[in-house]
Amino acid sequence: MPSYKDLDKLISEEKERAITRLLELRKSLDDIPKRTQKETLLLATWNIREFDSSKYGPRMKEAIYYIAEIIARFDLVALQEVNANLDAFQDLMDILGDNWQYIITDANEGTPGFDERLAFVYDRRKVRHRGLAGELVLPPIELGKGVYKPVLQLYRTPLICGFTAGWCDFMLATVHIQWGATEPDPKPRIEEIRNVAEFLKNRTEDETA
Q: Tell me, what's the pLDDT at 183?
């Protein structure tokens, strides 16, 4: 359960509202299967938009409590759009407590990257990081006779990590595909999806991976 000891630091109106909404949120989350130590492994992926960039200003403190309450219902959560400024992310980890750990990428720089990071957040009582961590870099295309053609890399470099839970060893990749509408030209977005899918397919067939 997340730590709510700092709720007392909110002004009385915010504190009362936060407690009421947290209780309502808990009730609405009861449809999620219960976490167990040996019988389940609950995974989730969540694009927390602009978490927490200066574009819209910082989130309210109580909003971080709601985010923590949702994440705490799972054993491992992949997060997208974590901002280069980690203040809000660190607040989230503080609320989740000492049993929660994370793996996070450097920020993607340049206009396409939007200073975003990717992260895995997990409960170390259930999930362990096995040491494998890397950012997905697409290999060049072989044209023949030792000639290779570089490929356009992804706007936001995906993160791949190895984990273990009980007897199960597994790898996860978290990806934030190029944003944009499907019209008038969906080709760049579709191409990114195709490239990532092909890479991961080849990786699953590699016994040394």
A: 53
